[in-house]
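Project channel, design review

CF: Before we commit to the Segatella sinensis constructs, I'd like one complete example in the thread so the newer folks can see what an input/output pair looks like. Taking histidine kinase.
RD: sounds good, go ahead.
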Amino acid sequence: MNRRIKQVWLLAILSSFLLIGLQTYWLYNSVTYSMGEMGKKNAEKAEQAIVTYQTNIGEAVKEKSHIGYVVTAYFSDYKRPVTTVCSPLDTDTIIGGVVYSKPGFSNVMQKRDTFDLRETDSNNSFDCLSTYITYQLTRFDKAHFDRFISRKLGNDFIGAEMKTGKHRLWQTRIVEPPTLFHHEMLVEVPFNPIQYQSMQMRMQVPMLPILKGMMWQMIGSLLVTIMLLLSIAYLIKVMLLQKKVDKMRSDFVHTMIHELKRPVQTLKMCVSVFSAQKTDEKNENALIMETVREESDNLTAYLAKLREVIRAEEHIPLQITSFDIHAALQNLVAVYRKNRQKEVNVSLDYQRTSDRMMGDRDLLLNVVSNLMENSVKYSGDIVNIHVACRDTGKGEVMISVSDNGIGISPDEQQRVWTKFYRSNAYPDMMQPGIGLGLSFVDMIVKAHGGRKMMQSEVSKGTRISIVIPQHS
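CF: and here is what came back for histidine kinase:
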């Protein structure tokens, strides 16, 4: 029982840790996904704020709209370079000296810059050219930029820094995504791609909206975890109570056996004294004394078997030795052949090449003795018992006990291994026994790491085999 309680405790604790771990992992991934979605929204907000700022700057230099700036660029939509006259307000295109849109510029700066913009689409290219011209006509003010972006983004904006790289940035990208323990993110937004300039903006990802959105998920997960912990606590409490009851039962049985041994021994001694006196064999008192002696022997045997079962439940370490199983089985066969109440025929079929066997000698012989005792008890007046011992070929020893007894019905073949269970199919329920024999067999075989098998048919007999592994 103690071993089973420990196994249940271990399974319960492992299951609770596993479930709590799965809940934590699920919540972590949910929060991470929500933070990722919030990060994407922040990136879009940052990009929109930059576009609004550049539009605002373009509006601020309208008074310089009469100034045109001539650039030559390679566009993805044109095979030849295109000369463009740009201002913050308008763009005129000249291809091969032909003006496709009448210029409205009173002053055209003849400085020509050439750019290769074929890596992006034409619309984006013209926007970049307009941004380039805007910052040719006005100076970038970092303080003004920070104030403007702060008004647009509010508390989410932490700071920004202009970056000049070796490659043009055409699309907004997230450099550092937010994490569960770091609620800031770094977004890089195209600013002036023609001059390889981008704006890196550090933004705050607020956790409160994320937690509000996941409120019901977190409450549900918390309730499940609390219910699990309460269930485990209740289970442990019940198992501790069961363990206490089991200990009380074990103590009671030990005390009962100890207290009953003294009067039983005294009774047997008195019977022996009276039996030693010379009496007529047909004397009624002599028959009574013989009956008392037999019942005293039965009671002593029951107490011994009960003690063995209790010891087996407490898992006293096995005394594993190498012993002569052939000679031991021969002795048991000789003992049961001497039964005076029934005609008992016992045969032994020993097919092993070796006489040695590894195991707890006393307990294993007790197991075989229990099986043979059941064969005698639950058979007719003529009992035929066949004991066999052989190797399985898998490093195991199999011992079988067969009889011609009343047999066991299929419905009861699993229940007979339970402590104190006695079949209702017995023709005589006054047959001595308390239902501990097969439960003891089951416990000892399991303690050896072995297995048991039963073949039985009602009115035709029973064959029970035990298989004991032989560890080198």
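RD: helpful, thanks. DSSP finds nine helices and 16 strands in the chain.
CF: Residues 215-276 form the longest helix (62 residues).
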